[in-house]
Design goal:
The complex is a heterotrimer of chains A (183), B (481) and C (253).
Chain A: H1 2-29, H2 40-62, E1 78-85, E2 88-92, E3 108-109, E4 114-121, E5 126-131, E6 137-143, E7 147-154, E8 159-164, E9 177-182
Parallel strand pairs in A: 1-4, 3-9
Antiparallel strand pairs in A: 1-2, 4-7, 5-6, 5-8, 8-9
Chain B: H1 4-35, H2 43-73, H3 81-104, H4 127-156, H5 159-162, H6 178-209, H7 218-251, H8 261-276, H9 290-319, H10 328-350, H11 353-359, H12 364-391, H13 402-425, H14 442-476
Helix pairs in contact in B: 1-2, 1-3, 1-14, 2-3, 2-4, 2-7, 2-12, 3-4, 4-6, 6-7, 6-8, 7-12, 8-9, 9-10, 10-12, 12-13, 12-14, 13-14
Chain C: H1 2-21, E1 44-46, H2 54-60, E2 63-68, H3 76-88, E3 97-102, H4 109-118, E4 127-132, H5 135-142, E5 147-149, E6 154-156, E7 160-164, E8 170-175, H6 180-190, E9 197-199, E10 210-213, E11 218-221, H7 223-245
Parallel strand pairs in C: 2-3, 3-4
Antiparallel strand pairs in C: 1-4, 2-7, 5-6, 7-8, 10-11
Classes of the chains: A alpha+beta (183), B mainly alpha (481), C alpha+beta (253).
The complex binds protoporphyrin IX containing FE and copper (II) ion.
Chain lengths: 183, 481, 253
């Protein structure tokens, strides 16, 4: 996913840079009496229309795949309660008591089955981001005090997954982490 | 025409902005070196740099844009010198308060100070109110400036004319200069988001002084924070665009651009989209109703249309196969627009919810916003600074070192930004003082970025010396000049 | 001035509707336990002589399970009365049934029939009354924990509603006497309607941006949202105000 995003970006950026260079050079070479583009209004119209259509297609393809609708009509086999706090993640099969928060030492989840993370925070905003074995970000949600975000996910491959905090939460933000084992 | 007083305060603004910019870049390089394990600072110190760098950058490039439009506004109408001075005094005071809170008080909740982090005190107790106070002081200064400028515009142009609505009819009798239209639209947006900041600070104050009796809603506070933060960061770019509309044709020796129905339409639409696009900062908060998330994506997409279809297209048309006088000013504008477009592409990619799911709060975010700032908005303002500084100079060696400066800017800027983009695509988190072992490439990338940022800094230093020298001359020339 | 007035009225009315809506949600995190676990498949003795198990019952229609005992001198009766009242106005009653189940081994079918009569529900198809021999296992599976108090000769227990979907999974629990909108959330959950988030109980709702209305499944704007539009509204008023005040001084162009 991220690789294709980077390539898409580099291609688009390169194309824009080329257009600007080309336009600049055309001005450098232009004689005194050259009149530029013949019918700018019409070109502008087509340019805008094409852009509009491209963005429209993009929106209608991507919006239905937003994370809010992920696996919405299936029943998860496991629920993991996650309470983030400065600077750790507590995770448990049982709901976590905010007054006496304790998590389990390790969490094991089945592969290729739907699991649901119920993510909240006991203090400030945190992020709950799941990284796969090759340290690629595969899914995330925020941990907000007073609210529960439900992130549903199916892990494809067994192995060790890392959880990192992706919302700045104070001076130990960069070491706030946890892990999951997928069997 | 503008008064000598205005000339002087404009010079003072320019010197201040450039000076603070250099300090800020140094902070940026220090952060990158720390992430590269060359420097070993306390994490809290890193985050204090990050807070300072973030808010100071936003502040200086906002006032840089305001300085530009205030100066050029005098071509059309009288602006208030007093408001300008008030803004100057309060901005400088605010910046000093900010730096005191971060470097003496060790405040480090980030420039977006997401609730309730500033209230979980991990620094000097007084630093939180001082930091929030610094935003209030700057906010009040900028509000004064914006409201005063808006009033002056409305004194000359009735509201509908200032918004160029007469262009929606056939053959309008009165022309609204594009500069006035864009300034007006942008000022409305700025006032709105500054009022949002005031409201946000009021909510903080209510909680801070209630001793626990009143507790805010985290979702509302996050919405308000980005309503302010996102909007101000965007509007300051539009200030730069107003300057382009005014100066780009002029320095190129071409006829002035005129407002047309599509220019009027584009900018009026921008006002609406820009105020609803901030929802994209909350994509990963599933608590936000899905309707708002979709509005966020669509409004963000739509915001790019008028920008691309009108401003960018107009700049390209104005240049394509047209012989114009190229100078440093023009070149900076032109390259800046290209940087803005490329940063915008990075933004459109990130603003797509499915992509945001794996890009949110990775280095992709600083990647795209540094693109349209460091290689976009900064160049717009540098162009204005340069253009302004040579207006009153007897010498004619203005184009000295142009090639060198531009080359350094581009090489340094592109290298520095690429490190961010690659980091983002490699899922490296943003706002990490040190990277965990999972990302072995992160430290080398950070070092590379620091090297390129130093090249960028070299260009800025040349700009600083050349422009400040001329500005100091203006500042200290006798008023009989 | 008039505009300010209208604005204040709107703001105040928002404020008061919010106040009225802010209710006391009694519990905390315990509700979160056992979610998406299978409920124990208890054998039921239903009032109508039906002998299906709990899972079989759910398979035909999702169930909202209320655990009570008939000799209760405390919460059970008001709890059931409240539940009945809350459900009375629902027109759409097809998508779930209510199972009132005794957790007291002393309760007989006769006790349950009497209970249904006293509630005037003996002929209501949606309401089922039952006893079971497997109550301990069932209690364990839903995290229900009544404690016998021999001094008062009463059970100490929570007022618990458990939502069970057609597959027999617990989808949501409510502890304590709750309002209609929480009940609606429960009904939606047993019908497998997914909402990607929810608010924790016991939080101040006054300034929240949105309040989820489970009856419609939509979010209604809260006072917080008004706050969010406040800057835009003030700017608009400011714009009109300035534009009106300076109109005399305008230099014609
Ligand atoms: C070459 C010059 C610059 C350098 C070396 C630099 C460096 C950095 C670095 C290292 C970070 C922290 C990134 C992270 O999250 O890990 C950062 C953040 C940031 N920079 Fe820059 N920057 C530069 C120019 C600018 C400019 C022109 C702006 C103008 C608006 C800007 C605004 C910001 C902001 C708003 C942040 C976010 C702070 C936060 O996350 O709280 N920077 N910069
Ligand atoms: Cu964290």
């Amino acid at each position: 996913m991220q690789n294709s995003i980077l390539i898409l970006f580099l291609v688009l950026a390169g194309m824009s840079a080329l257009v600007f260079t080309f336009v600049y050079l055309s001005s450098k070479k232009a004689g005194k009496d050259e009149q530029g583009i013949p019918n700018p209004l019409k070109t502008r119209f087509w340019f805008l229309l094409i852009l509009f259509v491209i963005l429209g297609i993009f929106a209608s393809v991507t919006i239905p795949r937003s994370p809010y609708f992920l696996f919405a009509d299936e029943t998860p086999v496991r629920v993991i309660h996650v309470s983030a706090m400065q600077f750790a993640f507590l995770m448990s099969d049982k709901a976590i008591d905010p007054k006496n928060p304790v998590g389990e030492a390790s969490i094991e989840l089945p592969a290729n089955k739907l699991v649901e993370f119920r993510v909240t925070s006991l203090d400030v905003n945190h992020g709950f981001a799941i990284y796969d074995q090759s340290n690629r970000l595969i899914a995330q949600t925020q941990a907000m005090p007073g609210y529960v975000n439900r992130l549903r996910w199916k892990f494809k491959e067994p192995g060790n997954y890392t959880i990192l905090c992706l919302e700045y939460c104070g001076m130990a933000h960069q070491v706030m982490r946890a892990s999951l084992t997928i069997k | 025409m503008e008064t000598i007083k205005l000339r002087k305060i404009t010079s003072l603004w320019i010197i201040t902005v450039l000076f603070l910019f250099i300090v800020n870049i140094v902070l940026g390089i220090i952060m990158r070196l720390n992430q590269g394990e060359i420097l070993h600072e306390q994490p809290a110190t890193f985050y204090a740099h990050m807070t300072t760098h973030g808010l100071t950058q936003i502040g200086i490039w906002f006032v840089a844009g305001m300085t530009g439009i205030n100066y050029l506004m005098e071509r059309y109408l009288k602006t208030s010198y007093l408001a300008n001075v008030v803004a100057m005094v309060l901005t400088v005071t605010g910046i000093l308060m900010l730096w005191t809170s971060t470097y003496i008080g060790n405040f480090h909740a980030g420039w977006t100070f997401l609730y309730p982090l500033p209230l979980k005190i991990m620094w000097a107790k007084w630093a939180t109110p001082l930091f929030l106070g610094s935003i209030l002081v700057m906010g009040v200064g900028w509000l004064t400036w914006s409201v005063s400028m808006m009033t002056q515009i409305l004194k000359k142009y009735p509201l509908t004319k200032a918004l160029a609505w007469q262009h929606f009819r056939k053959n309008p009798t009165i022309q609204t200069p594009p500069f006035i239209l864009i300034s007006m639209i942008t000022l409305i947006g700025i006032i709105t988001c500054l009022l949002g900041a005031v409201l946000l600070l009021a909510m903080y104050a209510a909680e801070y002084f209630s001793n626990g009796a009143f507790v805010n809603d985290a979702l509302l506070m996050k919405n308000l924070t980005y309503f302010f933060g996102h909007t101000i960061a965007n509007e300051m770019l539009y200030l730069g665009l107003a300057v382009i509309y005014e100066l780009f044709p002029e320095v190129g020796g071409r006829p002035k651009w005129k407002a047309t129905w599509y220019v009027a339409l584009a900018w009026n639409c921008t006002l609406v989209f820009i105020l609803t696009a901030f929802f994209h900062h909350l994509y990963m908060d599933f608590v936000q109703p899905v309707g708002f998330q979709i509005v966020g994506q669509i409004a963000s997409y739509m915001a790019s249309l008028p920008a691309a279809g009108v401003t960018v297209f107009s700049v390209l048309v104005a240049v394509y196969r047209t012989s114009i006088k190229w100078s440093l000013t023009n070149l900076l504008f032109f390259i800046g627009v290209a940087g803005w477009v490329i940063g915008g592409l990075g933004a459109v990619i990130d603003v797509t919810i499915t992509n945001n799911f794996v890009l949110h709060n990775t280095l992709w975010v600083p990647a795209h916003f540094h693109t349209y700032n460091a290689l976009g908005n900064v160049l717009f303002s540098l162009a204005f600074f340069h253009w302004f500084s040579i207006q009153f100079s007897e010498k004619t060696d203005f184009e000295k070192l142009t090639k060198l400066k531009l080359t350094l800017l581009l090489i340094g800027g592109i290298g520095f930004l690429l490190a961010f983009y690659i980091g983002g695509a490699e899922s490296m988190p943003r706002r990490y003082s040190n990277y965990p072992a999972e990302f072995p490439m992160a430290a080398p990338l950070a070092i590379g970025a620091a090297v390129f940022a130093t090249i960028y800094l070299a260009a800025i230093l040349i700009f600083f010396f050349q422009i400040s020298k001329r500005c100091l001359n203006i500042l200290f020339s006798s008023s009989s000049h | 001035m008039f505009k300010h007035f209208i604005f204040i009225i709107i703001a105040l009315s928002f404020f008061f509707t919010q106040l009225a809506g802010a209710q006391i949600a009694s519990t905390g995190f315990e509700e979160e336990n056992n979610i998406y676990e299978k409920v124990y498949d208890a054998k039921l003795n239903l009032n109508n002589g039906d002998n299906r198990t709990l899972t079989q019952l759910c398979a035909s229609k999702p169930v909202i399970l209320a655990l009570i005992f008939t000799r209760c001198s405390g919460i059970c009766n008001p709890f059931l009365v409240q539940l009945k009242e809350n459900l009375q106005f629902k027109t759409d009653t097809d998508n779930f049934s209510v199972l009132v189940l005794s957790f007291d081994p002393r309760d007989t079918r006769e006790d349950m029939v009497n209970l249904s009569k006293s509630l005037n529900l003996e002929n209501n198809k949606q309401w089922l009354f039952a006893t079971t021999g497997d109550i301990e296992k069932l209690n364990l599976s839903v995290g229900f924990n009544p404690v016998w108090d021999s001094i008062r000769s009463q059970y100490d227990h929570d007022a618990l509603l458990v939502g069970i979907n057609k597959e027999g999974y617990i989808t949501k629990k409510l502890i304590g006497i709750r309002n209609k909108s929480d009940l609606e959330l429960l009904i939606r959950s047993v019908n497998d309607v997914f909402s990607p988030s929810y608010r924790l109980p016991n939080k101040n709702r006054l300034f929240s941006c949105f309040n989820y209305n489970p009856e419609t499944g939509k979010n209604t704007p809260g006072l917080g949202l008004l706050f969010l539009t406040l800057p835009a509204v003030i700017t608009l008023l400011l714009l009109l105000g300035i534009s009106y005040t300076v109109r005399h001084k305008r230099i014609l162009i």
